[in-house]
Design goal:
about 65% helix, Four Helix Bundle (Hemerythrin (Met), subunit A), mainly alpha, Arc Repressor Mutant, subunit A
Length: about 230
């Protein structure tokens, strides 16, 4: 059976409290609100979210395994310094994975799904023009996931998902120049998919993701987040 955009779509389970705590602090770090060397206490996270200190601490331990936090003896959790190279490395990996998924999608995409992508992109550009960044984020996610699901490659999709925590959830609102760059890049990706050009689609998606990494690294450096 030919894969479709709806293939393998599953209901997302609710976040555990520890995951909620991790997501909250991760966002503070990648958005530049917490900087390298600053300390964060489980009790502070618990108060912010209205949860107990135990899941808050579990969330901070998760961020330690992800490389966002360091445990300093008798002091607690501090924000680990990230470099521009760290960010670009993550996005280079994401570009390879996203490019492969897009190349595979080019081999099976239909005219109907190309039209669906065009409709998503038109809505995204309209939302960006109105500075409705919540809607932009939702539509951007939908654009990428429509392509990635079409590839039929679950394991590669799982791998690319592991790189996503390094981008702030409010990427479009936070990173200057990204709405315009994204609109241009998405159009190029759609055209390569329309023509069934697998290698062209791979390169268009890879360039798009690498551009995101460059803009994010510049944004984090300007905010003082990078070490």
């Amino acid at each position: 059976m030919r894969p479709t955009a709806a293939t393998d779509r599953k209901r997302t389970p609710p976040l555990r409290l520890s995951d909620l705590a991790a997501a909250h602090v991760r966002e503070l770090i990648v958005s530049g609100q917490l900087r390298a060397g600053e300390f964060i206490r489980p009790e502070t996270v618990a108060d912010d979210l209205g949860i107990s200190a135990t899941p808050a601490r579990e969330g901070l331990l998760l961020l330690q395994t992800e490389g966002f936090l360091t445990i300093e003896p008798r002091k607690g959790f501090s924000v680990t310094a990230l470099s521009s190279e760290d960010i670009r490395d993550v996005y280079d990996a994401q570009a390879l994975l996203g490019g492969e998924l897009t190349a595979r999608a080019a081999g099976v995409i239909t005219a109907e799904l190309v039209e669906e992508l065009e409709n998503i992109q038109a809505q995204l550009e309209q939302a960006a023009a109105g500075k409705d960044y919540d809607d932009v984020e939702r539509l951007n996610h939908r654009f990428h996931q429509t392509i990635y699901r079409l590839s039929g490659s679950r394991k590669i999709r799982w791998l690319i998902k592991a790189t996503l925590p390094y981008a702030p959830r409010k990427f479009f609102a936070a990173v200057e120049g990204w709405p315009e760059a994204s609109a241009h890049d998405h159009r190029a990706i759609i055209e390569k998919l329309r023509s069934g050009d697998a290698e062209g689609a791979r390169e268009a998606m890879a360039q798009h993701i690498r551009r995101a990494g460059t803009l994010l690294a510049e944004h984090l450096a300007a905010s003082g987040t990078l070490g």
